[in-house]
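Narrative of activities, Objective 1.

The group set out to show that a structural description can be obtained from nothing but a protein's sequence at a throughput compatible with the screening campaign. Below is one input-output pair from the validation batch, recorded exactly as produced.
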Amino acid sequence: MRAGTLLSKRLPALVSKRLPALGALMLMLLALAAAHLGRPHDRLADQHAAVDLAQMFPTAFAGWALDTAAPLQLVSADVQAGLDAVYHQTLGRIYIDRQGQRVMLSVAYGGDQSDATRAHRPEVCYPAQGFEIVSRQDGEIALGQRRLRLRRLLTRQGGRVEPLSYWSTVGQHVALSGTEQKLAQLSYSLRGVIADGMLVRVSSIDRDAEHAYAVQAGFIAALLAAIPADRQSLVIGLPAAF
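Output recorded for this entry:
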């Protein structure tokens, strides 16, 4: 494997563990290199089986099932229109467990992770719907032999308190920040590849944020365990190299 190709594959993991200034420098250098090499032409989405979100994400698993009685409108109509314009597929569901706990799942998949997808991260689309972001923190949850990096936001709109957990992928990299997303895009561009990717958000209405995050972590772990192994890298990427 050429040194440049190896570096381009490892850059997102490297920069996620380094200072933001290093990320900015890497962005500049990678952008110059990508511009020099020309536009990418191979689509990562063409290298795996077609994505069908409704089939990929199960409707019932580990005590969770679809809540058919709950009204389903996870985002406002204008935000949904924006999602439909950027992503190839979106999926919205509400699940309920045997204890009556409800969790909202929103998934968006795009075959081309362009700059436009960053505008639909929860940090942007929730305030656009009138929510205040009260707090933000990055964390991890255990998934068997590996861990999943994710971001947790505490949002509020009037009397509605909605803690949420989300992550996004660019190709086979988890990218939580806009900088990480751009670095992953550029690392694929250096190899002539247009990356696909996914944004997965899990939320619940709960004034007790720590309780909500614990429920969401359990839901996410159970959900991912129910997704076929050959499709999981599309949802959560591959384990980080570092």
